[in-house]
Specification:
This protein is 46% helix and 12% strand. By secondary structure, it is α/β, with parallel strands linked by helices. Pfam families: Hist_deacetyl.
Length: 358
Amino acid sequence: QSSMVATAALLFNAARAGIRSCNLRSYSMMAQYPPVPLFYNDLYEVPLPPGHRFPMAKYRLVRLGLQRELEPSNLATFLPSPLAAVSDLTTCHDATYVERYVTGTFTPQENRRVGFPWSIESVKRSLSSTGGTVAATHAVCNRTPGAPRFAGHLAGGTHHAFADRGEGFCVFNDIAVAACVALRDYKESVQRVLIVDLDVHQGNGCAAIFADNPNVFTFSMHCAGNYFSKKQNSDIDVEVQPGATDAEYLEILHSHLGNLFEQVRPQLTFFQAGVDPHEADAFGKLKISSAGLKRRNRLVYKEAARHNSLLVATMGGGYPKDLDQESASFFQVCQAHMDVYRACVAMHSHAWTEQLSH
């Protein structure tokens, strides 16, 4: 507990520095707009076997740092993620698959493919991790007066889950579920959904689930040859060569992003904002700096705002080389995740300005 508090304090101090380095005018303008809802749940952090490589503590540390930074000024509101309803899960997942996971009847091979041991805690984690993205989607799609344009989920981005199987630390595909829920519940206002997946690994689950769905467009920009599973065909796949640096990466992204929004004209965008393209990531194979990832994030938010699209941001991957919560590596990953939501809050004012101009 003491190490957790110490790390949270480090994050808070860095967050304060982050505010000073940001455009203060953007933050002051936010007082004119509703706070950005950010969904979280302490159920995300579950016990893992000794030596497990997944950085489970990052969810709480990111939330604590952002909460200390943003909540006092009403820049964001922090809301607990509900458990996903079965009726929502089965909009894109096979009902038998959902039942088998929830009731603990996965085979050992299936659990190994997912990467987590099965437990009641892991079920709650998977349900709340999906429920948070669904709740964020409702927050932006339910167009009551004063509703936000952007929302975030401090977890999710589980893009390796397929309709009938999980893999790569992903059981249920939160983005796919939320997209299907939006198309089901907001038919009059949401007919075109865009998934912008910038995790270092391809969004293979989303690609497979929406392969024949004309209402959902999947865009995945990822590192070439950096995943153990067979890739699927997204609507647009962009492979970045291992070792790519900021200039190359951002040039490629910029060349696609504007045309992508022009082509799809999404009413709702999901941003899978994995930070594993970072040069310090344990599994990333790219050489993107913290500054480069910040520019990446702003590009996505800027295009969504410019095209008057609602947006939900999810966390995605980020893997420190050192799992010690007080290490520089762990701190760096948490900071990169926090930057995703800092930019979401800062760019929310632009989304409101664009809304008023339409």
